[in-house]
Amino acid sequence: MDRSKTYLVVGLGLLGGKYAQVLSGKGYRVLGIDCDPAAVQYALDRDYIAAGAAADFAPLLRQADRVIFALYPTALLRWVEQYGDLLRPGTLVTDVSGVKRGVVGPVQAALPAGVEFIASHPMAGRETSGIAHSAEVDFAPANFLITPTARNTQAAVDWCRALAQTLGFARISVLSPAEHDRMIGYVSQLCHAIAVCLMCASDNTELARYTGDSFRDLTRIARINDKMWAELFLWNKDNLIGEIDMFETALRALREKLAAGDREGLEEMFRLSTARRQAFDKKQQDAAPQP
Question: Are 86 and 170 in a shared domain?
Answer without folding.
Answer: yes
